[in-house]
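Appendix B, example 12.
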Amino acid sequence: MIRDHVRKSIAEPDFHPPPASPNDTEGQAYHQAICIRQVQMKSFILSSVILYSMLRKTDSVSDCLTTLDRGDNTSCSNANPGIRYYHDVETDICFPFLYKGCGGNSNNYATMKDCYIACPPEVMFHCLGKTPKTGTCDRDMKGCKSGSVCLLRAFGPGICCDMANEAEWLEDFECRCSEQWKEKEWNDVEHLLGKTCSHEFCPKDFDCKQGYHLAHCCPKEKKEKEEKGSKTVVNN
């Protein structure tokens, strides 16, 4: 079921999984598809954008290799903080972060699309997280040592990747949350998956959950929301 929704998300940019009822056991899978969609659709989407960025010459490639600098909020008088995007060299993915408003460097883009235009993904076949391959395998998916999995490309031999590492990355991409997302929260999912919680990329009313290699946002649990609401009433 989840694979079907991921495929549909890639084919149809405006697709959203159907809302889950409170007791819907399939609901979590639908919401996991949204996070997977960000990586497979939002990150590597729009082949025309990526093709354009690969064909054109750019002087900004070096910016893509720069370490993230979130800036500060004191070195200028007109600080303009907000969610921005940067290219992560380790994973070759553009991630969101909270820009503090002043300073920083050029690895700082207004949208995910802008980030990928400036920093197109490598046209390479590699293990998740760009971790080193453990070997090669044939078209019959044979040749990997124990503890590795064979990943086939469209043509030619495949590569062997560490099974435990692949499992960790896939679990991070699933974005598991105990609290279900509401339909209105699906409309802006670009920055619900990031590199680390320290980048403060989650929207209001979301908590950040750190995974093995990535972090994702989950709706605040009902109990926490209710406590926050009761404090507001008392203060009034």
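The radius of gyration is 20 Å. Confidence is low (pLDDT under 50) at residues 1-31, 39-50.
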